[in-house]
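Teaching assistant here, posting this on the class forum so everyone can see the example we discussed in section. The complex has two components, and the goal was to see what a joint structure prediction looks like when all of them are supplied at once.
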Amino acid sequence: MPNLKNNITDLFGIQYPIIQGGMVWVSGGKLAGAVSKAGGLGLVGAGSMKPDLLAEHIKKAQQITDKPVGVNVPLLYKYCEEQINTALDLGIKIFFTSAGSPKKYTSFLKDKGCKVVHVTSSPELALKCEAAGVDAVVAEGFEAGGHNGRDEITTMTLIPQVVDALSIPVIAAGGIGDGRAIAAAIALGASGVQLGSRFAATQESSAHDNFKQAIVNATSGSTMLSMKKLVPVRLLKNKFWEEITVMEENCTDPAKIQEHLGKGRAKAGMLEGDMNEGELEIGQISGLIKNIPTVEECMKDLVAGYNQAIERLNRKLF
Amino acid sequence: MPNLKNNITDLFGIQYPIIQGGMVWVSGGKLAGAVSKAGGLGLVGAGSMKPDLLAEHIKKAQQITDKPVGVNVPLLYKYCEEQINTALDLGIKIFFTSAGSPKKYTSFLKDKGCKVVHVTSSPELALKCEAAGVDAVVAEGFEAGGHNGRDEITTMTLIPQVVDALSIPVIAAGGIGDGRAIAAAIALGASGVQLGSRFAATQESSAHDNFKQAIVNATSGSTMLSMKKLVPVRLLKNKFWEEITVMEENCTDPAKIQEHLGKGRAKAGMLEGDMNEGELEIGQISGLIKNIPTVEECMKDLVAGYNQAIERLNRKLF
């Protein structure tokens, strides 16, 4: 795949510019290690982990592969500084930060010799990331699972605008589930891609089997950007989602919605498999996902699909 | 451009698989004729036109070019049957229908030797179009301007799912503003593309100059899918949009919102240039659009941009 080598593969020292996004309760050391072993970049999602647990997962990933592994640190969690220090102590050199200001840790991490990427949902925020000194940005569209931006900018419109605004590499995220979409993202100007949902439904993901099966069963309209008056988050439709949606449509006080959300919903749904009461964060591309392969099989499919898409673009179509 | 020839160019007898979407108040005969003359497929948007006015616009397009020109007929308008008969009388052989059942006129039009395409926003509806006997579908994503689907499926996730579900050609729409996005759509499996906003901001479009300038001034987050409790429609944010949005956020009775919408808002905004009180239907890709070229210049840019994107995909990146 010589044409999959670019500035993102050089930046991280990886074979394919395919990154597995950090996902709470889903992307532990087993998944991140497997993705890096298969030639992509695996990220341990620190979001749901206390520093001790994060250390365990980083070590697990490092036992699986000698290749680079990164950590995704959402900056809204109270442990984020300890998480960063834990990862540094274990030799992590690649940090993806999100859900907070890129100014907060970028210089600190760059001074330690790390590569830093921040996740953004608009060209305006992407420019702030570049000004903060990050090496690259993840530009994540409206179709992405989990937390999302308020402007509802889709991947198709976001990527070219971020690419035009910045001089650093752009990693496209949101709605990318197969090799065709990787080719589409590169056509739009991205240098690499970040996939969440596709890797959530692999053997090595720590998502509960019920959740993996729900991803496979999803159709194109099975997710919706929800809880916009709290923090916008894309959820798989289930009983919990319906309750929240009825409350939102009836203009229920956001504090009451927060109360109904309560604590532990995401863990209950995604890790423990409660498909009714759990909060199921997943992307709109779930509708395309029809199997639960190993990470190695998944990566082979992605690369093969990418190459087929390029071949198709190069011949008289049909 | 031999690689831009495919089953869509064969279907319509055109040079490039680039279609100018029908847009109320914006896509008259001047725009449709210019797009067809430049090698794409121009569509006269019948939506806002009484049959007599439609006839005038079709004749105008036919005076500009001998090449095929189509008509877009939204099936929710009371004049739609007369519109179809008017177009047939004037020799129109290409019909894009939307906003209604594909069963309604497809057989009738096919029996008259016409090519029929229906616009859809989900794989499920696309299958109904195929069953109704259409020659192709337009699969239009959440980022598109104007009327939109309820499932909020973006172009990036919609296209591959529609392509996988159907055996007829798929035309991608929503969020396509330059040649990079055309390449992306083809990578996702589409056989052609339909562009609205890009052609709305050309010299030949009948959009008011104020509206064209507002498209050029738009940034990535300047539009929003609105009026979801009536019919979801993507609008440029302005005073009218703010009023409607406040009403929606406060759970105002939809009948009151309908009353505030009133009549003639779209004409006032898009044709007559009232940027405060008018309803401005436009796509999210407005943020990318930075000029008001002639259609010929626009088509040259699209094709050149497409070829550059393909070249980029074929070489070691950067």
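For the discussion questions: The domain at 2-206+288-314 of chain A is CATH 3.20.20.70 (TIM Barrel). The mean pLDDT of chain A is 95. Think about how each of these relates to the inputs above.
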